[in-house]
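Could you show me just one protein sequence together with its fold in token form as a worked example?
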Amino acid sequence: MKTIPILMYHQIDVPPPKGSAMRGLVVAPRTFFWHMACLWLLGYRGLSMGGLEPYLRGERQGRVFGITFDDGYANNLYRALPILQRFGFSSTCYVVAGLVGQRNSWDAQHGIAQVPLMDAAQLQQWVDAGQEVGSHTMTHARLPDLAPDQKQREIAQSKQALEALVQQHGGVRHFCYPYGLCDVSSVQAVQNTGYTTATTTKRGRVNLDAPLHTHLLLLPRVLVSRTTTWAHLLLKCFTAYEDRQTGTTPVGGDPVP
């Protein structure tokens, strides 16, 4: 494969009522099941970023795709984990380290419903079940807006905080830029901190022909929304459809499916 899709999910739960802010980023468990089932039936294996890394580096080849969840919602544990286990898939959940066990307070100003985030015990349960924890900064910060010392805290201290909370083989090695926002100094700080991959919200599949030093810290992902059917997901994963999309997941309102 010359491309590898990394799926970007947020919440796996019963979608909120019509008209709710960011409703599009809540994927129903039944929809998530069929996403995973279709890819499994085609002989593809869903992997965490740690499991996917050798494929991204060109060290291994196979029918694989990445599975990521942004923010660390508790419903990922209750709703997504049983489905992942059913198909033998692993995934990475990017956790906001300073808000473990709290709620998605960064969304409050946009009128987005406040829902529980995994606490330390739940994160350990997630890891013990074969899944992976990655960093999503300390506070879900807009990194380009921060002073250098604040940026360093968000990127480096989140790694340290999560490693103190969760016993995970190899530590926390994978990062996700909140809102998909990053600049040159953010990428440099991510690299200096010791993360080996970093994902964005830029839409598309990973192009394996791109230079390693470029793509591993600026990885695009395949947007999966509430309205993404299994057929639409296959279109996104196995054709150039998603590669032709522009922009990133919006902060407010439903994303483009």
Q: What stands out?
A: Confidence is low (pLDDT under 50) at residues 248-257.
